[in-house]
Design brief:
Radius of gyration: 22 Å
Shape: globular
Order of helices and strands: HEHHEEEEEHEEEHEHEEEHHHEHEH
Number of helices: 11
Helix content: 40-55%
Strand order of the largest sheet: 6-5-4-7-10
Distance between the termini: 36 Å
């Protein structure tokens, strides 16, 4: 089973831990697409053969897993393999970005079933935006054809700061007028679904852990590049949220990177004209797309060189920050993604991997890989849906606490 075994959470044979152990087994099956036998599950999870057998029976009865094919071990009877049934349950995800709102439906394997995007309203009216999100969620469910009783819930990824306990979006820098907006409770009332709210960079990290570039590691950082930037941290397969759920701000590392800042710099240096002056987040992204085009234009001359230098300088700033953060948490992987990542990817990946390899902070005890998202530019929305899958189906160590 190789590296897969290193990332599977160990179970417990203590009594009254059935829910935790069930999640351990389901997670182990999910992480090996070709399937695992009951013997392999017992070896991977540390659970007894009888416990694994009982759990597998329950998973099969509930339709969460299915038996598929046989595996010969060279001697004795071939072992039956179990796989997750992707269509058994679904999760909805919404990513509220100041420029665009993205919606997805995921199956149990974290695969996108249906996808929808709408522009974020320019007006500073949370009520209008909330009504639009609610209508779009209903449309998403209808278009997906997913049975309502198989939907586990709705996840929301929003720019910070957020009040996790109260379910509020507090006062995001790029969402003017959004002061303590009850996003979670409003959507729960309107949709009738259980709703989870989390910060977008944290949701994105969960997406990579569930269905992206970091499925085979429990120690990585995700650097998010959208209207703003931030970092999601995963250590020992646990997402670090901080005391208020607002971990991930990168300003103190000198790595904060915003679309507007890059566009403003390009205008100051004469690379972009004043027609690209951003009136809002969507305008800033339009300017960045043009900056990226100029930087990569063949034979673009002086403007092309200037545009490339602007992006390269931002890559160096971000690179310094991720080198420091990777050392701090001893990460074995750095993943980049987010809505504007496709426009920066080529130049960032020319610079940052070498910075990490040469960094005096990143010790050579183990390699630190630098890679692009395995989820795509909708990583925030996929992460929002993965919040639901993760809380509902993953083994949560806090469930072992005595109450």
């Amino acid at each position: 089973m190789g590296s897969q075994q290193l990332t599977i959470r160990r179970g417990t044979n203590l009594p009254k831990m059935g829910d935790f152990n069930e999640s351990v087994v389901l997670d182990a099956i999910r992480r090996v697409p070709e399937g695992l036998s009951r013997v392999e599950l017992a070896e991977a999870t540390g659970l007894s053969a009888q416990t694994v057998s009982n759990i597998c029976r329950r998973l099969l009865d509930h339709g969460l897993a299915r038996e598929t094919g046989k595996k010969s071990t060279g001697s004795g009877k071939p072992r039956t393999l179990l796989q997750v049934s992707p269509e058994a349950r679904y999760a909805l995800g919404v990513h509220l970005d100041p420029a665009v709102i993205t919606y997805v439906v995921l199956d149990l394997l974290g695969r996108v079933v249906t996808h929808l995007r709408t522009p974020t309203p320019r007006v500073a009216d949370p009520d209008e935006t909330l009504a639009g999100i609610s209508a779009s969620v209903r449309r998403l469910v209808t278009e997906s054809g997913v049975p309502r009783d198989r939907i586990l819930g709705l996840g929301i990824a929003a720019p910070g700061p957020v009040d996790m306990a109260a379910g509020l979006v507090v006062d995001p820098p790029e969402l003017e007028g959004w002061r303590r907006v009850p996003l979670r409770d409003y959507l729960a009332a309107e949709t009738g679904l259980p709703v989870l709210l989390d910060k977008d960079v944290i949701a994105a990290a969960i997406a990579e852990r569930w269905a992206g570039a970091a499925t085979d590691t429990g120690n990585f950082l995700f650097f998010y590049l959208g209207t703003g930037s931030g970092m999601g941290l995963v250590v020992e397969d646990t997402v670090l949220r901080g005391v208020s759920g607002n971990a991930g701000e990168v300003g103190g590392l000198g790595a904060a990177c915003t679309t507007r800042a890059m566009v403003d710099e390009a205008m100051q240096l004469g690379v972009l004209g004043h027609e690209f002056t951003p009136a809002g987040p969507r305008d800033a992204e339009r300017g960045l797309v043009e900056l990226s085009r100029i930087a990569e234009a063949p034979g673009g001359g002086d403007d092309s060189a200037k545009a490339g230098d602007i992006i390269d300088r931002w890559a160096v700033r971000v690179g310094r920050g991720v080198c420091a953060a990777a050392t701090l948490v001893d990460a074995e992987m750095i993943v980049f993604g987010g809505p504007i990542w496709p426009h920066l990817q080529e130049r960032f990946l020319r610079i940052i991997p070498d910075m990490v390899a040469r960094s005096p902070f990143v010790k050579k005890i183990h390699p630190t890989a630098v890679t692009s998202t395995g989820v795509g530019e909708d990583v925030g929305a996929v992460g929002a849906a993965c919040l639901v899958l993760d809380q509902t189906l993953s083994a949560q160590p806090r469930s072992l606490l005595l109450r």
